[in-house]
What we know:
- Residues 534-538 have low confidence and may be disordered.
- Helices cover 15% and strands 27% of the residues.
- The protein is an alpha+beta fold.
- The protein has a 4-stranded antiparallel β-sheet with strand order 1-28-27-26, with no helix packed on it.
- The longest helix has 30 residues, at 501-530.
Amino acid sequence: xxxxxxxxxxxxxxxxxxxxxxxxxxxxxxxxxxxxxxxxxxxxxxxxxxxxxxxxxxxxxxxxxxxxxxxxxxxxxxxxxxxxxxxxxxxxxxxxxxxxxxxxxxxxxxxxxxxxxxxxxxxxxxxxxxxxxxxxxxxxxxxxxxxxxxxxxxxxxxxxxxxxxxxxxxxxxxxxxxxxxxxxxxxxxxxxxxxxxxxxxxxxxxxxxxxxxxxxxxxxxxxxxxxxxxxxxxxxxxxxxxxxxxxxxxxxxxxxxxxxxxxxxxxxxxxxxxxxxxxxxxxxxxxxxxxxxxxxxxxxxxxxxxxxxxxxxxxxxxxxxxxxxxxxxxxxxxxxxxxxxxxxxxxxxxxxxxxxxxxxxxxxxxxxxxxxxxxxxxxxxxxxxxxxxxxxxxxxxxxxxxxxxxxxxxxxxxxxxxxxxxxxxxxxxxxxxxxxxxxxxxxxxxxxxxxxxxxxxxxxxxxxxxxxxxxxxxxxxxxxxxxxxxxxxxxxxxxxxxxxxxxxxxxxxxxxxxxxxxxxxxxxxxxxxxxxxxxxxxxxxxxxxxxxxxxxxxxxxxxxxx
Length: 562
C-alpha cells in the first residue's frame, strides 16, 4: 500500500512577534483630586428590585373547529365480471360459462400463477404469530397501580333543539356500548316555554351528529330506561307525572301511557325496571311522596303504591322522592328512595302484603344521623357489595350500610355542589361524582380515601346534571344543563380491578361497621350512666386501670416522665 505525505511550510515572520511577560512594580498613571463643590450635585438613587426569570413565557389557546356532519349511505354490490351475453341471474348460463372456462388451456396456467403467489404470502404469515401476546405472564395489577389516571373525551352529543334544555337522565343499552338514551327536560319551575319541543333522543355512540331515533311525549321525559331483557322496550317518566311505555319497533310515540287519575301529581324523577316472569313491571318515584309500582301492559291502574313519610305515628310528614335504586342481588323486595330532606328510605315489598317502609337512614327521629343538607340526588348500590350504597347530595358523598342508620364514610366537602354520582361497574372501590362547576371527580377507596384520585373537566363552567357509567366500566356518559352529553373513555387504572380489590373493600366495610357499632354502644352506655342505670351496656375493651398502667409503661419507655 502506498504512503502519501504532504508538507506544509510557513515563514517565521508570519507567526507575529514573540510575547515576553515579566513582573513590574505598580505605577501611578494619574490622580484626580476631590472637588468639594460637586457634593451638592450628588443625588442618591433609589433602590430598585428586579426579578429575572429564565423560563420562556408561553400561552395556550384552544379553538373549537366547526362540526363536520357525516352521513351513512348504503351501496348495492351486484355480481360482476360476466360477459355481456351471459345473464348472471340465470344459473344454467353461468354454469355453462364456468364449464367452458375450465376447459380453456390458459385457465390452468392462471390458477398455477395465483397459487404460487398465495403460497408465498401464506408462508410469510406463518413464520410469526401476528396475534401473539407478549405480556401474557405479566401481572396486570402491577402495571395498573403505577399508571397515571386519566379520562379523555370520545364524542359530544348536542341537543337538536334550539331551546336550552338539560339532560336529566342517561340510560345505556343493556347489550353493550352501542346506544344511549338521553332524557331532555327543563326542571326549573315555570321556565319551560309552551312551544318547546317535548322530544328525547336515542344516540348511536358512533354517530354524534344525528340521533338514530326520537322519543316523543305529551310532556318532556325526565327519565327513560331500557328493559334489561328486551332492549326494544323503553319506559319513561314525564314532567306531568305520567308514565310512558315505548316499543321501539313500532315507532317513536308511546304505545301506552297512564291516565291523569292514577299518575303522579309531580314530575317522575326516577324509574326502574323490575325482574319478573312477564318482564313488564317497573317502579317510579316522585316528589309527590309516592312510590308506585306498574305493569306496562296495564297502565290504567297501578299494581301497588307506597306513601313516603317520616314514620311519625301522630302527624306523619310526607317526604318527596328524587332518587330510586333497585338491585336484584341486594334482594328483590328492597327499594332505596332518596328524599328531598336528604334522608334515605328502605322500602320492603313482600308478596301479598302492602309496601312498607322498613328503615329511615339519617333521620334523627328514627335513631339515624348524618343526613344530607339538601336532597339526596343519587342513591346507588355497590355492584360487588350490594348491602353498601352511595348517596350524593349537598357538597359531599356518603357511604351507607343497611345495618347502620348513620353514614359509614363521608367524603370531604367539594368545592361545588354535587348533582349526581355512580359506582364503577368493574371496581369495588371506585365511584364518581358530578359537580355543578363542570368537573367530574373520581374517588378510589382502594388506594386512598383522603382525596380525589382524578378530577376531569367536562364543561367550561356548565353544571353537570347526571352521570351514567357503561356496564363494562370503560365508558362514562355525562350530561349537563345545556343539553350536551359527553362520552368519556377511562384509562385502565379506573377500569381494571386491583389485586384482591373486592375482598379489601369488603374488609374495609366490615371494619368501619364494627367501629360504628362500638361507638353506638359507647353512646348508649354513656346515656345509661347519666340516667343512673346500673345495667348499662359497656363497650368491650380494656378497663381504665389497664389503660393507665399501659400509659405509665409507655412514658417510662420513651423517657417522657417529668
